[in-house]
What we know:
Blueprint: H1 2-14, E1 22-34, E2 37-52, E3 57-71, E4 77-94, E5 98-121, E6 126-150, E7 156-166, E8 172-182
Antiparallel strand pairs: 1-2, 1-8, 2-3, 3-4, 4-5, 5-6, 6-7, 7-8
Amino acid sequence: MRLLIVLLVSGAAVAQPPRRIEVYGNIGRAHLAEDEGSLGGATAAGAIMVAPITARFAIEADLQTASASREFLHEDRTTSRQSFLNGALVRRWGTGRIYGLMGGGAGVQWERTTSVGRVYTGNPPVETGRTEVTTHDTGATLHGKVGLVVAPVSGLVLRTDFIVSFRFVSPTFGARIGAGWRF
């Protein structure tokens, strides 16, 4: 039994994640945040490119986009599309068939928000029309991720991860799954 444990531990020490570029497409669910609080849940989609720099470390470029809408009163609502471009230094452990990852980095978030509401005038207030305001905003983010990659057959890679991005007091966070190719 001790010999088996020694063999497993020494094999894990020698095993390394792959040293080839990986590209993924992914989809998931995110909880979006803005400067005034939570926007709520949204479907997110994007792409990831992984470029190994050593046997254990890789650099990731991550592009994600999601859209959420929040209704305040019967006809007053805010709709926001947020997109993220992040770079990350990721620590990987495991083998070429299955490995875990954890990392983080800095990036940029851009967002387009449209708010629609009613206009009131007079005393007592009477609804006199509607207004629509569209704003564009860009800012720096800090983010982190933890996940798992599985390669069931040569070339094909499957990935799941959890992400968190900080730009405002309330973070944007989510979970996603993806499929890709190891070149």
